[in-house]
Amino acid sequence: MNRVAQSALLFLLGATLLHAGTTDLYLRYVKAGLRPLVLLAGVVLIATAAATLWYERRRTPGHEHHEPRISWLLALPVLALILVAPPALGSYSASHTGTALTKPFGFPDLPADGPLRLGVADYAGRAVYDDGRSLRDRELKITGFVTLDRAGAPYLVRMGLNCCAADAQPVKIALTGDVPPVLSPDTWLEITGRYTPRRTKDPVNDGPIPYLEVTRAKPVPTPHDPYDETWNT
Amino acid sequence: MRTTGGTGPVATTKPAPRETDEPPENELTAPSPADGPEPSSGDGPEDGRHLNPPLLLTLVLLTAVMLQDPIRGALSAPVMQSWMTVFVAVMVQALPFLVLGVLLSAAIAVFVPPSFFARALPKRPALAVPVAGAAGAVLPGCECASVPVAGALVRRGVTPAAALAFLLSAPAINPIVLTATAVAFPGDPEMVLARFVASLLVACAMGWLWHRLGRTDWLRPPARASYEDQGKGAAFWGSVRHDVMHAGGFLVVGAMAAATLKAVVPQEWLSAAAGNPVVSILALAALAVLLSICSEADAFVAASLTQFSLTARLTFLVVGPMIDLKLFAMQAGTFGRAFALRFAPATFALAVVVSALTGTVLL
């Protein structure tokens, strides 16, 4: 690979990172906090491409410097991001990974009246480890995507993220009550429902999964950040 | 860009010199769309028959844009989607850290004179090893950053044993990683201490082992074009370009391997391994190698493996930053295959033994 091709590839890679970092695209793959680093890396790569071209023009001929063929592989992430832009991890990963619910540090007070908006992990943590004390007789609104297990039972899931999608793990809530008859996996739903003490175990890792009694399920668009980053931090 | 393209004037007047730092035959290379007719392998007169690389790159991109719909169709299977997402995620997450490490390594290679390291490190290699290992605590990054920096240290005349101790300790014992460990294990603060102690021990032991048994001809320090005859700017950017292209290519190999395992290996296998104490340690050590998670995030994954003992999870945290698929590919690229094939298994074995012992004592 000669230097002009290297320069082109470096530029494409940098431009792709800038594209992902300036839109919401990067949120499908990494946590929001990495954004400055992604943008910085894009700028440095483009600067490297420019410097390579600049010094290439002034270079005395005779020192052709080829990089090994393996460098061509850097075209793959560029193609994957620009052409395919794979979606955030969804029901496939969720159904193959056990629920990652762990005991929360504490249970901060919830607003006293009105319908209560909760995250999937927040509801699951309070339902399993606080016996739903703060949830009883409240109208709850929870947003997540649908996952079906092998038997076809529906779960509401949100994937949690620590760094990038390679370490993403799901927290699951099982659905009961007035569940819509046809649910397709990966649909985002806002569920309105009530706490129920019923629980089950995740077939994958025997982790605890609380139930939620559904009164209404409304399809919603995929949220701005598909992962739950409040989780574990 | 000149109208003659990149290879033209040079390649036709004299045979292109083979690069000395080119890995012999890149067996690790998975087929890439543009791999076949790559001209750098052809010498001299045959170059005219090859397409030149920029043109090739343009053609590949145009073809991919035209075939966008069929490609999307083929990739819409859930397994493929999940594979692609993890692959892209590992790349997007690791590239910024690789770029930081490459900038630092270029700065070391160009602006720090070799005499600095001669003064900063003890003369005797046996003493330089623990100093360099402890110095790993100041490089705030993950393992992608430490490989190019260690390569630059070797080129600047630091004894390989000390540079290797730095390579192993830096991703595991820096403040960011230790803080992440403390956050991930709120109930077990001794985990942070155990991780620090075990990682530093393994790094120093590997340094000393290399000092006693290592042979220089296993190590292929990248003999690159000397920077002495160029300006500092040209040398700096030349080093950045070289390291990104080189380590980046190997990073892609590692990311593909990690994505394959994440998408394919069922989690039920892990639950089966958790019952036996010895098997569980080995299983999590193997998992750390296969998953290739960034050392800044691995503590959270370890924390979620609740069915395993703390010692087994400590092994996961010690092995992961020192040796995994991504790192192995990058080490082979930077130091040579002969080195990586010896260094990686030794590191793995030592890391497993030391973390099992540390876990028994401290946890």
Please tell me about this protein's structure:
The complex is a heterodimer of chains A (233) and B (363). Chain A has 233 residues and is α/β, with parallel strands linked by helices. Chain A has two domains: 3-84, no CATH class; 91-219, Beta Barrel (OB fold (Dihydrolipoamide Acetyltransferase, E2P)), CATH 2.40.50. Chain A is built from five helices and six strands, in the order H-H-H-H-E-H-E-E-E-E-E. Chain A is elongated and about 80 Å long. Chain B is mostly helical and 363 residues long. Chain B has one domain (80-362). Chain B has helices at residues 8-13, 53-66, 68-74, 78-111, 114-120, 125-135, 143-155, 160-173, 175-184, 190-213, 232-264, 268-273, 277-291, 298-304, 310-322, 325-335, 337-362. In chain B, helix 8 packs across helix 15 (310-322), helix 9 crosses helix 10 and helix 16 crosses helix 17 (337-362). Mean pLDDT of chain B is 78; it is low at 1-49. Chains A and B meet through helix 1, helix 2, helix 3 and helix 4 of A and helix 1, helix 2, helix 3, helix 4 and helix 9 of B.
Q: What key attributes describe this structure?
A:
heterodimer; A: 233 residues; alpha/beta; OB fold (Dihydrolipoamide Acetyltransferase, E2P); 2 domains; five-stranded mixed beta barrel; 5 helices; B: 363 residues; mainly alpha; 0% strand; disordered N terminus
